[in-house]
Design a protein that fits this description.
Elements lengths: L1 E9 L4 H9 L4 E6 L6 E7 L2 H8 L9 E8 L6 H7 L7
Antiparallel strand pairs: 1-3, 1-4, 2-3
Length: 93
Amino acid sequence: MLTAMVLIDVDAGVIPEVAARIADVTGVSEVYSVTGEVDLIAMVRVREHDALADVIADKISKVPGVLRTQTYIAFRTYSKHDLEQAFSLGLED
């Protein structure tokens, strides 16, 4: 599984609408509204490298209101939370 963090600059007047549209894109697992230099951060999780281009360049970047994206691809996961989810069977503790 490949994970990418996509930092997204958005037209300020449509941030909630853009976030909702991005959240509906297949391959996007979460969208966060954040403070700082960007407006949104989307977590993209796909099985193959080529799928990143489909999700980010062909879908997220083309959502009306998206002004710019910057993508960071994760090499390793160090978060205990993420590792527990990866091996979870979906059963409650």
